[in-house]
Each structure stands twice: as C-alpha cells, then as structure tokens.
Write a structure and sequence with these properties.
The complex is a heterodimer. Helix content of chain A is 77%, strand content 0%. Chain A is built from three helices and no strands. The mean pLDDT of chain A is 84. Chain B is an all-alpha fold. Chain B is 67% helix and 1% strand. Chain B has 20 helices and two strands. Classes of the chains: A mainly alpha, B mainly alpha. The complex binds protoporphyrin IX containing FE and copper (II) ion (CU).
C-alpha cells in the first residue's frame, strides 16, 4: 500500500519560502499593531463620548467607528487571510461580487420597502 | 468497481451506493432521484389538468387543488429539474475537465443525501395529511396563516434540500477552478462546464437569501418570530423580496446548464465547431450577473412605485440581449453544418423556437405597464412553462439521451426516443400555447375551477389533452430506459461518433478513476483536435501511468443528514407534543456527533496501484 506522497523541496525553494514567510510575518506584525491601535482609538472615542470629556458628537463618533471597522475588515482579509498574496484572484472576485450583490439588495430594500 | 466481474450480494450493493463518493455514482443517484420526483410532479400536474378539464369540475376539492399546485411547482423546481441537472453536471463535468473526481467528494455525497432527505421530508407531508398549500412562492400573507404543518414541511424540507444544493454548487466551483487537466485553460473549457460554473456561482449567491428567508418563515411559524406579521411590526413584502432575490437567479440556475447541454449537442451533431465560443462564454457570465438585478419584475403590481418599476423593467429587458446572442450563435453553429438528426439533436432543434417564444413573453411581462394586465393570469403560466419545459426540460431530455451511454454504458433506443420527443413536444405546445390566450381572456392562475360560459372551456380542454400527450411521452421514455437496460448492448467510448470533448475518449461507463493518465489538453474540443491529427485514442497523456490517489467511501454523509431530518420533525412538533423538543435536540446532537467523527478521524484515501491501471487498460484494449 503506497503511502501519501511527500513532496521534498530543494534548498533554493526552501530558502525562498523562508524569506517570503519572514516578509509576510513582518507585515502581519505591523498590521496587527495597527489593528490594536485602531481598536484602542475606537474604545477611547466611545469612552470619551460617554463621559462627555471632549464634547464629541454622536455624528462624529459613529461614522469614524464604522470607517475603522471597514479598515479592520480589509486588513484582516488582506494580511491575515492572505488575500494580498498571489492566487487569490477568485476569492477576491467572488467576495467583491457578493458584496456588490448584497449592497444592491440592501439598497433595494431601503429605497423601495422601508423608505 | 474493478474490471473483474464480481457477483455481490444485494446488501453489499446497496451499502456501496449509500457510501459512495464517486462523482459518477452520485451523478446517477441525483439523476434517478430527480427522475422519480419528475414523475411524481408529473402525476400532480395531470391531476391539476384533469380538474381543469371542464367548468365546475369537482374531481379534487379546492384545498387539495392548492396543495397539488404547490407541491407540483416545488417538486418540479427543487426536486426534479435541479437534481437531474446536478446529476448530469456531477457525472460529466469532471470528465470534461479531465479530473478524477470533484474537489470535495465527501461534501458531494453530503449534498446528494440532503437533497434526497429534503425531498422525502417535503413529500411525507402527503402522508401526514398536512400539505403545503401557499404556492411554490409561499407568500407569507398566506403562508403564516396556513393551518396545520403544511408550510412547515415546505420550509424545513426546502431548508434541508437547499443546504445540499449550496454544497453542490460550492463543490462544482472549487472543482472547476482547481482540478482542470494540464492545458485546460478557462477559454478551452467546454460550454457545459462553463455553464455549470456560472450556475454554481449563482447558487452560491442566490441560495443564502433563500436559507435566510426560510429560517425567518420557520421562526415566524414555529418559534414566535414576527418578521412577516404586519400586526406585530413585521412586513410581509420582505418575504416577496427575499424570495425573488433567490427566485429569479434560480430560474437561471435551471436554464444555464440547459444552454450548456445544447451548446454541446449542436457542435456534435452539426459536426462543426461552436460558433462564437468567446461570445457564448461572455453571454453566459453576463446573463448570470444580470439575473441578480431583476428580481422585482415579479413584484411590479405590489406597488413599488413607478421609479422602481421602471428601473427593473429596463434591467429585465437587458437580459434579452445576451440571450439573443446565444440563440444566434446556435443558429450559426447549425448553419452549413453536416447535420445528423439524432434524438438529442431533435430536442435541441425543438428547443430553439420554444425557448424563443418563452423569452418573448418574458419581455412582454418585463414591460411593467403591460404586466399589470398579465400578472397572475394564465399568461404567466404559459410564459414560465415555455421557458422551463421548452428550455430546461427539453435540455434535460437532450442531455440525458446524449450522456446516457456515458453514464450507464447503455445506449437508449433512437426509435423510442423519437416517439418520446414527438409526443412530448406536440403535447407541450398543445398544453401551453393556448394558455397565453386563456390569460388574455382573463383566466387567473391558481384557480381551482371556473364557471361555464366565459369562453374558457375549449381552451382548457385542449390544454388537458396536451398534458396527457406529454405524459405518454414520459411513459415511453421510461419504457425506453427499461428496455435498453434489459438488452444492455455494450457501447464504445464515443457512441455518437462525433464526440468533441474529453468524456468521449474514455470507456462508457468510465473506470472509477476516470482517466488512466491525466490528459493533456491542446485546445477547445480536445478530442476532436486529436482525432483530426490522426490520434485515434483522442487523448494525449500528460503523465506516465502511475499510482492514482482516490478517496474512500463513507456512510457519514448519510448519517449526518439523517440527524437533520429527524431534528426537522422535532422542530415541527415541538409545541404540541412532549417528544418534539427532545427529538429536535437529539437529531441535532446526532448530526454534531457525526460531524466530529468526520473531523477527528483522518481519512487519507487510498491508491489504485499502477499494475491495476495497466491491467485495466489492457483488458479494455487501450494503448498507453
Ligand atoms: C428573456 C428572459 C426572461 C424574461 C424577460 C422574463 C420575465 C419574467 C417576468 C417579468 C415575470 C413575472 C410575471 C408576473 O408574475 O407578472 C416572469 C415570471 C416567471 N419566469 Fe420569466 N423571464 C425570462 C426568462 C425566464 C426563464 C429562462 C425562466 C426559467 C427557466 C423563467 C421562469 C419564470 C417563472 C418560473 C416565472 C413565474 C414565477 C411565479 O410567479 O410563480 N423566466 N418572467
Ligand atoms: Cu424573474
């Protein structure tokens, strides 16, 4: 009974792989810090709003929160789920199509049912 | 299925089919399951037509009539047309791209069993005497107030079957993206593979809305939700939107594979390359995309307002453009070809005028002001039967006849096939052509009976006669199947003699690993090219003969689905019985247990040894 085959990399391939992994690790750490920073800012904003410290308005805080959320989703997809790397064309295509369709349906609802 | 003929016990055979993950066997099960429901839905249709045979008829009661039309529509769309198409896709698409199986064989089998159990669940309603009766669209103003468990059978049954469909769709997508043979670029894929791809993408985007809608309906009915109840702040129009956001793409999920089948049939039997391949691909993708932008054309009369109606009317008519491109490409494919009128070709030739008529009435309905006249009349019934029967069902018959030898190793009789065609085709036009006028004359759809003296009598009579002719056609088809399988003449690799794509270069039925050697694809219509260049086998191998890795069968998909099936009954009887809740919990627990069994135990598959492959090749008389 033949066993599952294992593909052996050549030293050059191995080196290349290692360098790439290192680069992607760096990017991930940078983005991770950025995400933590964004989360901190968001929390601070909400706390400041609740405690009425800087006189933030609701109409300032909520859009900024949503914006940060969108940025975080993007970072998550591109850096942690590797959409910035090669070979993810189809994943991108399908996700963006899905978003477009969901958006048009939501728009349909808002405009013709709920408005 | 080694080439050594083994006599196996009946039990072992059943077990083999229950645990199979082979795409060809799963395809056969989809096909047979779909045919069973096709016959069931056909019987329902005949009873409907017999009830409408004459005015003031009372063959069935009004309540039963509602149940019949609901179950007819639901069965035909979800349990007949789609599974039969899935059967063909499963059996043929991997062969067309030179793959040995689909990407996720386990999930493939899970999808199959969810379809089968969902279908059984839905139809058990007949035995419980509480049958869905709010139409296949199940508009919630009716569906929420419908008494008994009929609508619950609808919601839960479709939920189970729909889950299976979603899995099948994702599986096809991943298969086509990842498992193509070397050289099989996207623009060399056969059109049936392309339409499978686009239809699967539509499934991916259209079925989640259905899932959500059905969950909301289930919650409204069984768990005290109020999504659609306007007295509690809900909105019944939301269901209509959700249903049609799913429902319109659904009709394209049905028709695109049929387009794919015809795009294979025309080149084979006109013995000419498909005209305008690139534009065909483009039109398929465009139809798929536009299909999502038109759902509100089913709701013109709801009162969305003139702006919304205008936008959706224009979007609807836009779809006619890519559809027209396809029609002209098919005509130009036949043009000047050396045509062989076989049974699949007959269906294809019959399809063009029939489908064009359905498309034209579609455009008429797409004109919002005119639709105020046509909506909910028999004109609508005529339209969708022209596109579904004249398009999808003719496609299914054509595809089944074309690929039957490949799937079963048995050629269907051409003579009987022609009888089926003529009965079915004439019966179809007799049934539905006159219904356009019934619509113009004011007969509303979904009525149990009608009064004498409105001028509808003879039209309804003609329509019923036509339905019977269609029934005779289907019976002849079934006789044909049985007769051919009794005679069981062995068929060569390419029984039609002019096959162009990879499936025609391997034995019929293929060995379970499909290709002894993965083929190398050098262009569109790969086998045709090889044969033109004098390579009789039709294949250029891309690898030496070597061990082949194949997946193991598993009973887990069957058990997983069984758990959901049981849980469905629990959910339904949760309120009025004491056993309902425990059964619900038990069923779900069982499903989770089987899921963990699957996750915790690694199944690495097995290898078909090189020696075995060589032996098979030698017995088949093939060359290496
Ligand atoms: C040129 C393409 C098409 C156009 C413009 C079109 C347009 C329409 C419109 C406007 C309606 C709604 C009529 C009403 O209820 O007042 C409708 C209904 C329908 N169409 Fe089409 N259609 C097209 C193709 C198709 C195809 C290809 C299929 C299926 C394979 C299909 C299946 C249906 C079904 C099932 C309904 C009725 C749904 C129901 O109310 O139960 N249509 N069509
Ligand atoms: Cu539609």
């Amino acid at each position: 009974m033949a066993d599952i085959q294992i593909y052996k990399k050549s030293p050059v391939e191995y080196e290349l792989e290692k360098r790439r992994a290192k680069k992607s690790m760096q990017a991930q750490i940078i983005m991770f810090s950025l995400m933590i920073f964004l989360t901190l800012v968001s929390f601070t904003m909400v706390v400041a709003f609740n405690a009425d410290i800087l006189g933030f308005s609701k109409y300032f805080v909520i859009p900024i929160l949503l914006l940060f959320a969108a940025v975080q989703v993007g970072l998550q997809l591109y850096y942690f789920m590797h959409m910035n790397e090669k070979g993810h064309g189809f994943a991108k295509l399908f996700m963006y199509t899905g978003m477009l369709l969901a958006f048009s349906m939501l728009l349909g609802y808002i405009v013709i049912t709920w408005w | 299925m080694s080439s050594v003929a083994q006599k196996r016990s009946f039990g072992a055979t059943v077990w083999d089919w229950m645990t199979t993950v082979d795409h060809k066997k799963i395809g056969i099960l989809y096909l047979l399951g779909g045919l069973f429901f096709f016959v069931l839905g056909g019987i329902e249709a005949l009873i409907i037509r017999l009830q409408l045979l004459k005015p003031n008829n009372d063959l069935v009661s009004a309540g039963l009539f509602n149940e019949l039309i609901t179950m007819h529509g639901t069965t035909m769309i979800f349990l007949a047309a789609m599974p039969i198409l899935f059967g063909l896709m499963n059996a043929i698409m991997p062969l067309q791209i030179g793959a040995r199986d689909v990407a996720f064989p386990f999930i493939n089998s899970l999808g199959l069993w969810m379809f089968i159990f969902g279908g059984i669940f839905l139809n058990l309603s007949w035995f419980f005497g509480q049958v869905p009766d709010a139409g296949w669209t199940s508009y919630t103003s009716l569906a929420i107030t419908s008494e008994g468990h009929g609508i619950d059978f609808y919601a839960i049954g479709l939920q189970i079957a729909g889950g299976g469909t979603l899995m099948a769709g994702i599986n096809f997508l991943v298969t086509i993206i990842n498992m193509r043979a070397p050289g099989m670029t996207y623009m060399r894929m056969p059109l049936f593979t392309w339409t499978t791809f686009v239809a699967s993408a539509l499934i991916l985007f259209a079925f989640p809305p259905l899932t959500i809608g059905l969950f909301m309906l289930t919650f409204d009915r069984l768990f005290g939700g109020n999504f659609f109840d306007h007295t509690m702040g809900g909105n019944t129009i939301i269901w209509e939107h959700i249903f049609w956001i799913f429902g319109h793409p659904e009709v394209y999920i049905l028709i695109l594979p049929a387009f794919g089948i015809f795009s294979e049939v025309f080149p084979i039997f006109a013995r000419k390359r498909l005209f305008g391949y690139a534009s065909m691909v483009f039109a398929t993708v465009l139809i798929g995309f536009l299909g999502f932008m038109v759902w509100a054309h089913h709701m013109f009369t709801v009162g969305l307002g003139p702006t919304a109606n205008a936008i959706f009317a224009v979007a609807t008519m836009a779809i006619a453009v890519p559809t027209g491109v396809k029609i002209f490409n098919w005509l130009l494919t036949i043009w000047g070809g050396s045509i062989k009128v076989t049974v699949p070709m007959l269906y294809a030739l019959g399809f063009i005028p029939s489908f064009v008529m359905g498309g034209v009435t579609g455009i008429m309905q797409g004109a919002a002001p005119l639709d105020y006249q046509l909506h909910d009349s028999y004109f609508i019934v005529a339209h969708f039967h022209y596109v579904i029967v004249g398009g999808v069902v003719l496609g299914i018959f054509s595809g089944m006849t074309l690929w039957w030898p490949k799937m079963f190793g048995v050629m269907l009789s051409e003579t009987l096939g022609k009888w089926t065609f003529w009965f079915f085709f004439i019966g179809f036009h007799l049934t539905f052509l006159i219904q356009h006028w019934l619509g113009f004359w004011g007969m509303p759809r979904r009525v149990w009976t009608y009064m004498d003296g409105q001028g509808w009598n003879s039209a309804n009579f003609i329509s019923t006669i036509g339905a019977m002719l269609m029934g005779i056609g289907v019976i002849i088809f079934l006789i044909n199947v049985i007769k051919s399988h009794v005679q069981k003449k062995p068929v060569p690799n390419d029984p039609w003699g002019d096959g162009r794509t990879l499936e025609w270069a391997i034995p019929s039925p293929p060995p379970f690993y499909n290709f002894a050697q993965t083929p190398l694809v050098r262009g569109l219509d790969s086998v045709w090219i090889e044969k033109q260049e004098g390579n009789e086998s039709g294949l250029t191998p891309a690898e030496p003969v070597q061990d082949i890795h194949m997946p193991n069968g598993s009973i887990i998909p069957f058990l997983m689905t069984l758990g959901i099936f049981v849980a469905g009954f629990g959910a339904m009887y949760r309120l009025e019985t004491s056993w309902g809740l425990p059964v619900l919990v038990l069923g779900l627990f069982f499903t989770f247990a089987t899921m963990s069994a699957r996750s915790l135990k690694d199944d690495l598959g097995f290898y078909v040894k090189k020696e075995q492959v060589l032996k098979d090749l030698k017995e088949k008389g093939g060359k290496i």
